[in-house]
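Narrative of accomplishments. A recurring question from our advisory board has been how the design workflow behaves on a single, concrete structure rather than in aggregate. To address it, we present the structure tokens for one chain from the evaluation set, followed by the sequence designed for it. No filtering or post-editing was applied between the two.
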């Protein structure tokens, strides 16, 4: 079989650029990396066949610079451009600029990006197709009196959302009528600042929902299939920490129903390539359409592990005009997959970014473990970009086995020089609500509040333990570990991994 393309430029950095390079290599496609001055020695640059510096570290002057990326693709003879996620992935003007330069954009048509970028229009399309939406406005709310009428009709609490927003930016929760006018004013000004459009809309607030999203694939020949759901309820400030597939809340019947709804929506806007349709699932297990993400998502690997399909290869084949070659009946699921995001952040200090040089790095391996990383020992995590360093993904025959495997893999993970989210991920994997599958979007807030309440006592205990250890050490005249002796993993009779 011939390769879908001769050469592809990857308009991204970090782990997702590496992920795309790997798919290209397996398909015999040449790769061109682009990089900013802060990324000269980044892994994606080392792994690509060719690499082009596109500018200074600031994203606006490099990874968001449409003209420079298109020029690099033309100069190196690339036939297609993969945008990854973030940066220009959902930018219709970028997709158009690629087409104008005779480059295939590996993603949906610009019209489909625009149709879903306007959240009010997307809601209206969903409703027209019989896809359930949260009760709310059909058009952007323009005046306060109309907003008050709609809010009273759907019932408080309500949420105000930016029409051109998404991902939780510019949202406002309104508990009672008295707060509405002020919240509207704040939401409008925030939306205008963040998205250059002050339009907002109103929805009834769903309390403690789950976030469930459906992966779809659509080819240029009219076939649309779904690859089931991912549950992404473990988030902090709209940053996902853990994702899994399947969702503990979804039955096979619900999967067919939600999946079919997602496919209908995609078909209606002429969607092509990989996409994700987001839903809220309430306590009664009713589902409501939220928005559609017109790109490959960070958490795509959990879907790959349970369906056995390579989403990036599918994207490349679809972009080259190939037929999907299978229908919904041939999509099957096996076992359970969980992903943990390894960010350069300090969870003990409110998740502040922790950029810097990675001193030592040893990623876990063994049965059922996948390490999708964008870093290596000696690499620097730049301060200019998102803090995601790597994703740890595990597969197991069932959810308990996947959790046990994730705990084992997290314990093997060794990374020094930067702080990471590993400790909080271990904490989540050991949480009884998590292991029971009782997830909702307030999960992390609860977990962090519990830990904060317990912190003073545990800190006292830690101090007492340290004092006792020092006293015993002195009493036994244990010699101090040599500064350059064996690694810490052999000290004090403790075994690797990770003494803490
Ligand atoms: C909501 C909601 C409750 N009710 N809409 C946040 C991200 C954006 N895509 C939509 N979001 C929400 N919309 C209604 N009508 C609660 C959230 C929400 C949330 C959703 C998914 C994952 C985490 C979340 C955390 C807080 C709020």
């Amino acid at each position: 079989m011939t390769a879908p393309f001769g050469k592809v430029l990857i308009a991204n950095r970090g782990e997702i650029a590496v992920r795309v390079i790997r798919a290209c290599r397996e398909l015999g496609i040449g790769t061109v990396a682009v990089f900013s001055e802060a990324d000269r020695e980044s892994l994606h640059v080392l792994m690509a066949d060719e690499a082009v510096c596109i500018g200074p570290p600031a994203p606006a002057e490099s990874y968001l610079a449409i003209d420079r990326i298109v020029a690099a693709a033309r100069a190196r003879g690339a036939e297609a451009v993969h945008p990854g996620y973030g940066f220009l992935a959902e930018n219709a003007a970028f997709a158009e600029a690629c087409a104008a330069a005779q480059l295939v954009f590996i993603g949906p048509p610009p019209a489909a990006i625009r149709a879903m970028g306007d959240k009010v229009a997307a809601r209206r399309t969903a409703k027209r197709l019989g896809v359930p939406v949260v009760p709310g406005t059909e058009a952007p709310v323009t005046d306060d009196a109309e907003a008050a009428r709609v809010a009273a009709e759907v019932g408080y609490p309500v949420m105000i959302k930016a029409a051109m927003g998404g991902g939780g930016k510019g949202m406002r929760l309104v508990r009672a009528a008295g707060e509405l006018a002020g919240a509207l004013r704040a939401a409008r000004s925030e939306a205008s600042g963040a998205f250059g459009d002050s339009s907002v809309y109103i929805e009834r607030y769903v309390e403690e929902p789950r976030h469930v999203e459906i992966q779809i694939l659509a080819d240029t020949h009219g076939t649309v299939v779904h690859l089931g759901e991912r549950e992404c309820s473990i988030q902090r400030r709209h940053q996902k920490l853990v994702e899994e597939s399947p969702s503990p809340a979804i039955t096979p019947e619900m999967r067919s129903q939600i999946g079919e709804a997602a496919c209908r929506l995609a078909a209606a806007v002429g969607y092509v390539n990989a996409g994700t349709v987001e839903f809220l699932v309430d306590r009664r297990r009713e589902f409501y359409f939220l928005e559609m993400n017109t790109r490959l998502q960070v958490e795509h690997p959990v879907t790959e592990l349970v369906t056995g399909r390579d989403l990036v290869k599918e994207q490349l084949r679809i972009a080259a005009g190939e037929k999907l070659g299978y229908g919904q009946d041939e999509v099957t699921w096996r076992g359970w997959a969980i992903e943990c995001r390894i960010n350069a952040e300090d969870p003990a200090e409110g998740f502040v970014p922790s950029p810097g040089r990675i001193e030592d790095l040893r990623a876990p391996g063994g049965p059922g473990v996948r390490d999708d990383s964008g870093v290596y020992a000696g690499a620097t995590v730049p301060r200019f970009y998102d803090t995601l360093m790597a994703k740890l993904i595990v597969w197991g025959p069932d959810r308990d086995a996947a959790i046990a495997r994730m705990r084992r893999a997290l314990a093997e993970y060794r990374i020094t020089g930067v702080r990471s989210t590993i400790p909080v991920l271990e904490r989540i994997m050991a949480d009884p609500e998590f292991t029971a599958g009782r997830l909702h979007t307030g999960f992390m807030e609860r977990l962090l509040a519990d830990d904060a309440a317990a912190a003073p006592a545990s800190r006292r205990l830690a101090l007492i333990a340290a004092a006792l250890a020092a006293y015993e050490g002195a009493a036994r005249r244990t010699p101090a570990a040599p500064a350059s002796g064996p690694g810490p993993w052999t000290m004090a009779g403790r075994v690797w991994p990770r003494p803490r």
